[in-house]
Design a protein that fits this description.
This protein is of the alpha/beta class. It contains 16 helices and 16 strands.
């Protein structure tokens, strides 16, 4: 088990500048003198700004402006409605021309939702609301102010600062990162030289919020002027120590710097707070002081313009949303130095080539590098790996880049994860030393993106499955509840039937029997009438027919009435019985009711037939009498 240095040992070693080291690392040419010799300049106000609504790790904010709206400098364009969300603000006053997709500050250049603002030239601020005395202001209010100011980590990661500041774990070391280890970049160097006091103010605010035991300001030893100015700014603070760190790339990496200063290794799936540390970039501290002391949201940052294709390399204050074509013009870009245009956002180790000159400056954009052909040649075509292991020796995270390359290239993503792909900080040290010119970091980034996409798809699939299973369970429960309800009702009917079901059946049977007897009597009567008519002499038929027809008509009418009455009685009995015997099962009720209705129908038909015959005979008799007379 690895034993790390305790607090007292760390303080003692820092006081005599005896630091630790991290594995691997490289020493590329620094090339910082190109841009760090002059003061930071301010860019002229541009005409159009392209402000992406997401410039940090986390989720987008909700857009709160519409096309055609007039906005002021510093006005919020989005609202933070989720924990990992920070707003973006208008870099100047003007009019919202459009809310649309625009090329992103990303290696892919994939368009992302942006707000396009046409400047009005007035550059009018919103009313600013600084905090009068942050020492007397609650921590939660200060954290909310930091969030509302849109501040995220400006060292390259873009992690929301208010999330990191809302810490509840014991904190030993607040580390301020002024290393800026990547070649060519000097924005933090110039910021520390020119604005050390405001950076100190930001550190003081963080100390008030986080209450650390010790503050360590780390500056690489190739920045002696910045080291001196920060030492002077912090000399009155006994628990602030400005430390000179040996120059080695990537000493500015979060985990690497924690290891150099404290000997503690951050777990692969953990954060610096897990070993008692929290780290902020000097640019972030400056932005915090601007937000709390001045009341200004984050709308600009220092950007290095460097490379031998610039006639005037320098550092500039660039508004967020400024297209890089404006920065090229201000740095006096010389096209003749490049056989084919190449513009890198970031440094030569971790930067990427932009796909459009309209790519905007965002919160994590610290450099625009435009190298000449003889300065930073285009990489040769990739060649086969020779298994030299130089990449493993250079890796500051103690990974196996060669194996990660094979698995990433062959899309064996599970194997790549097993080899701790996500511990890679994408510093580019492995690609820098590779004799085969293999763009290793490119493969790692692609593999990480593929794994994230797979995780997102799996998460969507899992959510859909959960919804399906929940619906299935709900329907099954409803079905079981209906079946149980029917079962209970059936049992109740059966129990009631066992109690008095016999009497109900007897009533139904009696009603059916009476109806059947009436029907048989009517049929018997009709038969007798037919027989009588056949045996009576012709001379007597008139009288017989007359009497019989009248009798038949009368009998028919009485029978019809009787039958109707009997049928009605039967139906009433059925209805009464049904009401009285709700305990009979549904099948039995349906069968008996059908029989009763059929019998009643037959009786009505027979009565109607008899009535019709009687009317017909009466009509014949009347006709005969009329003819004789």
């Amino acid at each position: 088990m690895t034993v790390f240095a305790d607090y007292d040992e760390i303080i003692e070693r820092i006081s005599v500048n005896q630091l630790w080291d991290f594995p691997g690392g490289v020493h590329p040419p620094q090339q910082k003198a190109l841009s760090n010799q002059s003061n930071i300049e301010t860019l002229p106000l541009d005409k159009t700004f392209y402000v992406p609504i997401k410039q940090h790790i986390g989720v987008d904010g909700r857009i709160i402006v519409s096309e055609g709206d007039s906005v002021l400098k510093g006005q919020a364009l989005t609202a933070s409605e989720a924990p990992f969300s920070v707003p973006v603000h208008a870099p100047t006053s003007g009019t919202v021309r459009k809310v649309t997709e625009h090329v992103s500050a990303h290696p892919s250049g994939i368009p992302e939702l942006s707000i396009i603002i046409d400047a009005d030239g007035q550059d009018t601020w919103i009313p600013l609301k600084p905090v009068a005395d942050y020492a007397k202001t609650g921590k939660s209010e200060l954290i909310e102010r930091i969030c509302d100011a849109g501040i995220s980590g400006m060292g390259g990661a873009g992690f929301p600062t208010h999330i990191k500041s809302n810490n509840t774990k014991p904190l030993e070391f607040l580390i301020i990162n002024g290393i800026e280890c990547e070649p060519y970049i000097s924005s933090d160097d110039r910021l520390m030289r020119e604005h050390a006091w405001q950076i100190r103010q930001g550190i003081d605010i963080l100390v008030h919020i986080l209450q650390p035991r010790q503050v360590i300001i780390a500056v690489e030893d190739n920045k002696p002027e910045a080291l001196e100015t920060m030492s002077i700014a912090c000399q009155q603070k006994t628990n602030y120590q400005v430390v000179s760190v040996p120059t080695k790339y990537p000493a500015g990496g979060e985990k690497q710097l924690v290891q150099v200063l404290t000997s503690r290794e951050v777990p692969s799936d953990g954060l610096p707070i897990d070993v008692g540390c929290i780290m902020y970039n000097v640019g972030t501290c400056y932005a915090i002081a601007d937000a709390i002391v001045e009341g200004k949201p984050l709308i600009e940052r220092v950007v290095t313009l460097t490379g031998k294709s610039f006639k005037s390399p320098k550092n500039v204050w660039a508004r967020l949303g400024t297209p890089i074509q404006t920065l090229l013009k201000h740095g006096d870009y010389d096209e003749s130095t490049q056989s084919s245009p190449r513009f890198i956002m970031g440094g030569p180790m971790m930067g990427f080539t932009v796909t459009s000159l309209l790519t905007p400056i965002v919160k994590i954009s610290n450099c625009i590098l435009v190298p000449a052909d003889n300065e930073l040649p285009h990489p040769d075509d990739e060649r086969a790996c020779i298994r030299c292991s130089a990449c493993s020796d250079a890796c500051p995270a103690s990974l196996l880049p060669q194996q990660l390359f094979w698995y990433s290239k062959s899309k064996e993503l599970e194997k790549a994860e097993e080899y701790n792909l996500f511990d890679c900080i994408e510093c580019g040290a492995c690609a820098y030393v590779c004799p085969s010119e293999i763009p290793l970091v490119h493969y790692y980034r692609q593999a990480k993106a593929d794994i994230r996409n797979q995780r997102e798809e799996k998460e969507k699939s899992d959510k859909a499955k959960i919804r399906f299973e929940a619906r299935k369970a709900r329907l099954q429960k409803e079905k079981e509840e209906r079946e149980e309800k029917h079962r209970i009702a059936a049992e109740a009917r059966k129990a009631s039937l066992n109690k008095d079901g016999g009497a109900a059946k007897d009533k139904i049977a009696a009603a059916l029997a009476r109806a059947k007897a009436k029907k048989e009597a009517l049929a018997k009567k009709q038969t007798q009438d037919d027989t009588l008519g056949a045996t009576t002499p012709e001379s007597d038929k008139t009288e017989v027919v007359s009497k019989d027809e009248v009798s038949a008509e009368s009998a028919s009418s009485q029978t019809a009435v009787s039958t109707a009455n009997e049928t009605e009685q039967a139906e009433q009995v059925l209805s009464s019985t049904a009401n009285e015997s709700s305990d009979i099962t549904a099948e039995e009720d349906a069968e008996e009711s059908a029989k009763a209705k059929a019998a009643a129908k037959k009786k009505r038909v027979a009565a109607a037939v008899a009535k019709a015959k009687a009317k017909k005979l009466a009509a014949k008799q009347i006709k005969k009498e009329n003819n004789e007379s």
